[in-house]
Amino acid sequence: MRQFNYPKALSFFLMLTGMAFCSANLYGQRQTREGYTSIFNGVNLDGWTIHGTEKWYIDSTELVCESRPEGKHGYLSTNKNYKNFTLLLQFKQELDGYSGVFFHSSIKGTTISGWQAEIAPPGQHTGGVYESYGRGWLALPKPENESYLKAEQWNDYHIRVINDEVWTWINGHELVHFKDEKIGRSDGFIALQIRDMPQGGSIRLRWRNILIREEK
User: Fold this and answer.
1) How many other C-beta atoms are found inside a 10 Å radius of the C-beta of residue 92?
2) How does DSSP classify residue 203?
């Protein structure tokens, strides 16, 4: 199994932050010299599928998701399945709310099955991993690690899944690392989520620099 060099990957990821996407192929993907592929082209949603009535659109090369007044769950899924991978992306919570990155997932309507790396308001377990319509929380960050999320700022979110092993990092800090046999037996797409607020209200998040490297 390839060892994950987090400092090296982070340096490369931050370097890409200021670079314009170029040399796009089908679905806007391009191969980087480190083996990562951009799966969001900053122009349109080619290579992705919208599930639900929530809004997903492009603004200044960034991907934006907004809740609708009816406040339902919504998802944007990759058209391709990924089993073993390292995913690097950035997100910013413009309006407080719940979101996440699903992996090894499938969906019927807006009922999604799979595992979610949480994105939530400060102190609400960003970086934890939750099994949708299953066992619930499988791993939570330690309380002292809840402070690494930067509210209303860009955050680096890194997720790595190798067979039955899962890691998450926020802004360079490892939040969870665990093994789970059920994850190891599964496969499916990656999906970004926007969730209704329990107390109502609007939600808006921005995403950019969504890169993936498939692993063995």
Assistant:
1) 17
2) -
CA distance linking residue 113 with residue 102, whole number of Å: 9
DSSP H/E element including 19: none
Residue from 86, 83, 78 nearest 39 by CA: 78
Report DSSP state, residue 216.
-
135 in Cβ contact with 129 (< 8 Å)? no
Contact in structure between 189 and 161 (CB atoms under 8 Å): no
β-strand partners of 174: 169
Token pair for residue 138? 């499988």
Contact 58, 187 (CB under 8 A): no
Q: Where are the beta strands (DSSP E) in 120-180?
A: 129-132, 136-139, 155-162, 165-170, 173-179
How many angstroms separate the CA atoms of 208 and 216, rounded? 26
Is the Cβ–Cβ distance between 188 and 105 less than 8 Å?
A: yes
Count of residues for the chain? 216
Per-residue pLDDT tens digits for 135-192? 999 999 999 999 999 999 999 999 999 999 999 999 999 999 999 999 999 999 999 9
